[in-house]
Amino acid sequence: MSLDSVTQSVDEAVSGFFEPIAKWLGEVVFYTVPVGGTDLPLIVAWLVVAGLVFTGWFGLVQLRKFRLAVDVVRGKYDEEGSTGEVNHFQALTAAVSGTVGLGNIAGVAVAVSIGGPGATFWMILCGLLGMATKFVEVTLGVKYREVHPDGTVSGGPMHYLPKGLTERFGKNGKTLGKVLAVLASFLILFFGLFGGNLFQVNQSYAQLVSVTGGEDGALGSSAGALFFGILIAALVGIVLLGGIRSIANVTSRLVPAMAGIYIVACLIVILVNITAVPDAVTSIVEGAFNPEGVAGGVLGALIIGFKRAAFSNEAGLGSAPIAHSAVRTKHPASEGLVALLEPFIDTVVVCTMTALTIVIANPASWGEARAGEDIGGVTITSDAFETVLPWFPYILTVAVLLFAVSTVLTWGYYGLKSWTYLFGRSRASEVTYKVVYTVFAVAGSLLTLQTLIDMADAFLFTLAVINIIGLYLLAPVVKRELRTFLEFVRARDADQNPGKGDDDQEPVKTTV
């Protein structure tokens, strides 16, 4: 029996068993209600409302403290002797690497195909709202993290939900917090194995095959798939063995590199078509409020834009606090401010650049997709770049590989923290997880397991329900932490610039 027939049999067996479960779970988690002629997924509304609430609660913190967040990333407010494993920049890039991925390339193309150019406007708005949610959850992640005797750190919803709820509500909060923590750990672990690992490897392999001759090319055979899977697994396994420090060292170089390559390519297309930029911007703004050919009109474009942004930046899902919790700091809110840059990079910058490139280049495949033809998002994005850069599919392949590897690394760390919370931090436990995770990477190039990936998506967004309830209950804690950090910033600035005030930090009352 050939390897191809074996993998096909496994795919069919898994799909046959899990498909009814995945379908039911997807219908529950992504339940939609008709609004203005289109369907609104309630989970997207849940995430957007959280962004609106926290934006108001913290006085537009994502805009008013944006410059301060950049200063913190630069190390301006670092303190000697701070507990943690990585610096602010490394924590940010490790978390960004878990969100910036294939969704920024393919998902955005699908969004502007279904929702028209106007979906871009709403995508940006949702990204801005998500910055406030990310600030809240990461501040809690650092506040309630667990520092182990060996200096390593564990954080995330599995830690701040039980600790924070116990601190605020006593015995009842403790019981609820423990139940939510176990659920959160399981949901993150499942998504990490299938969505953050297997799916990323599978899609990057598919893109690599497409530019190397397809199924008849050097990598099109089952042997080529196995080789690719083993190679990725080996790279991931080596980095995972080094823990968050090793992951941060890789992602702090990989993320800027992959984002730089991609954004430069976008800018080349935009500059070559510079005369088309005003019309493209006009179509985005007008399409947001007066879209043509979009089901549900304005609401349709809004929902599609919000959905793409919410699925891309993961604000409110509780995953990013795991990476950010390892930061070296004495002030939890300092990393919360750093984290609000994450949706800005992921959605406001990278997703918007993709959308703008497609709208400006206006490839034929985009028009066909808008007319209802089934065309893959990666194809549309690739065609947009190819209008100016005929060799771009090769560069896109490099970008996809970088995106995929960085995502696999970060979700490997997220999964490890969930695994150790559930099964303990012994060496045997950690080694078992790392072996399982690397095996899933090999399987990613051989198997599709789309049904399990669909389940993983549903699990991840189930986590958003659990996590955001906790964020609402613990928001007063975040408010106190922000006040404390802003007082520290004012004192530090006063010491460094005696006799000079910083208008951006005054008065504290207006920020919390």
UniProtKB/TrEMBL annotation:
It comes from the Bacteria. This is Alanine/glycine:cation symporter family protein. The lineage of its organism: Bacteria, Bacillati, Actinomycetota, Actinomycetes, Kitasatosporales.
